[in-house]
Specification:
about 110 residues, elongated
């Protein structure tokens, strides 16, 4: 699910940049932030279940899947794009706001996640 949401966010961000559709660019940035938040909540839920069932022999957990690596690549591409948008969008608010949403959101999620 994370890969699908990140793919949609990447398409929206790319289309927004190439077509000068800044509202679509902002929607892609917000979708990226929501994807990170959802992923963080799922990790917290897994950690809570893991802690509650730590004495059991069989623990159902999140396994590393084949789609985790492409999701990490897409996440990294979007984060670098957000940084570039912040740098070049100093005078252009249409580029600065999505850059702040992407880059600032990534930093906030990173600190909340520990």
């Amino acid at each position: 699910m994370k890969l699908a949401l990140l793919t949609i966010a990447t398409i929206l961000i790319g289309y927004g940049l190439l077509g000068n559709q800044y509202s679509i660019l902002t929607i892609g940035a917000v979708l990226f932030l929501l994807t990170l938040t959802l992923d963080l909540l799922l990790i917290y839920r897994f950690a809570k279940e893991y802690k509650a069932n730590s004495n059991e022999a069989k623990i159902q957990g999140k396994k590393q899947g084949q789609w985790d690596l492409p999701a990490k690549w897409l996440e990294g591409i979007i984060v670098v794009t957000g940084l570039v948008l912040m740098i070049i969008g100093g005078d252009n608010d249409e580029l600065l706001v999505p850059g702040i949403i992407i880059w600032g959101g990534e930093i906030i999620i990173y600190f909340i996640g520990g």
